Automatic annotation (TrEMBL):
<dbReference type="InterPro" id="IPR005935">
    <property type="entry name" value="Mev_decarb"/>
</dbReference>
<dbReference type="InterPro" id="IPR036554">
    <property type="entry name" value="GHMP_kinase_C_sf"/>
</dbReference>
<dbReference type="InterPro" id="IPR041431">
    <property type="entry name" value="Mvd1_C"/>
</dbReference>
<feature type="domain" description="Diphosphomevalonate decarboxylase-like N-terminal">
    <location>
        <begin position="9"/>
        <end position="175"/>
    </location>
</feature>
<feature type="domain" description="Mvd1 C-terminal">
    <location>
        <begin position="189"/>
        <end position="340"/>
    </location>
</feature>
<dbReference type="Pfam" id="PF18376">
    <property type="entry name" value="MDD_C"/>
</dbReference>
<keyword id="KW-0756">Sterol biosynthesis</keyword>
<keyword id="KW-0547">Nucleotide-binding</keyword>
<comment type="function">
    <text>Catalyzes the ATP dependent decarboxylation of (R)-5-diphosphomevalonate to form isopentenyl diphosphate (IPP). Functions in the mevalonate (MVA) pathway leading to isopentenyl diphosphate (IPP), a key precursor for the biosynthesis of isoprenoids and sterol synthesis.</text>
</comment>
<dbReference type="GO" id="GO:0005524">
    <property type="term" value="F:ATP binding"/>
</dbReference>
<keyword id="KW-0456">Lyase</keyword>
<keyword id="KW-0443">Lipid metabolism</keyword>
<dbReference type="InterPro" id="IPR053859">
    <property type="entry name" value="MVD-like_N"/>
</dbReference>
<dbReference type="InterPro" id="IPR029765">
    <property type="entry name" value="Mev_diP_decarb"/>
</dbReference>
<keyword id="KW-0752">Steroid biosynthesis</keyword>
<keyword id="KW-0444">Lipid biosynthesis</keyword>
<keyword id="KW-0152">Cholesterol biosynthesis</keyword>
Amino acid sequence: KFECVTCTAPVNIAVIKYWGKKDESLILPTNPSLSVTLGQDELRAKTSVAVSESFKEDRIWLNGREESIESPRIQNVLKEIRRRAHKRSADSKGESKLFQHVHIVSENNFPTAAGLASSAAGYACLVYSLAKLFAVQGEISDIARQGSGSACRSIYGGFVKWKMGEREDGTDSYAVQVAPESHWPEMRALILVVSDQKKLVGSTEGMQTSIATSELMKHRINLVPKWTDEIIEAIKQKDFTTFAKITMRESNQLHAVCLDTYPPIMYLNDTSKLIIRLVHCINDILGVEKVAYTFDAGPNACLYLLEEDVPRVLHLVKHFFLPAQSNGQPSFVTGIPVPE
Ligand code: DP6
């Protein structure tokens, strides 16, 4: 007997970034964060999980290559899913599939580890599929969190907050939907892929070094909860100007913290900086914030804007950046509707 579940999970792009852990193994953040989950058909992970009596061991394939199942994060996720499934079925006589091995096959439809939140979509998808397979119900974003912090936010669509939580065991650190996609259907995200190369400093390592060395980080940790409340209010009011200002200032502060880290971490390259300049030029000319940029742990930009402004912004971005592509410079543009 063979049972298989396949799911997809989209990438989420934070407007209030998670940067820093107070507990490395449980993955508990030093600040709350907030993101927008992109549409299902765009940047996403697709994962199949199967159990069978004939499987001899747990195994995992990522983007066509077998990887070690022994990775502590994968192990944490598997253990927690099995523990909850076991608890649920303890009253009944216990399901045999709980004792079978699992095979996992996962793929992204975009570059892995290029700062495009691949681990977020990947772990959200893995946890969601496993929960379906083992009939685990209730909150599962806290399990995804133990795979990769930002993954907890990809469990939900729309505008999602990851509550920092206060408890040491992490039981109050999970994701909640602030507003569904349908609340602000005009919202769009444009992903500007500046480079699809693997980043030099991964986010896990980068945030560890920032916590250990950056003075600015202490200031940031105190400031972020206030910005989180303010941006939630802006989302509720559909106040794009405030949403855009906080998004850009927050991204800039994250990268200032990275520069304040020792040794410094520089995720933005010259193209990223030109994108920042272009966005401020557009907003200056229009006299109000119509576009916002945000950068994760890499040079790729995510622009948030409203549907009515997509054609003119896309036109300008293509005008300034696409010619570079034929000169061998990496830069191309994808339009991502949020929501679908
Ligand atoms: C800059 O979730 O990848 O994208 O928990 O160590 O796996 P780990 O880190 P990860 O960090 C994401 C950092 C970020 C900001 C964000 O998505 O909030």
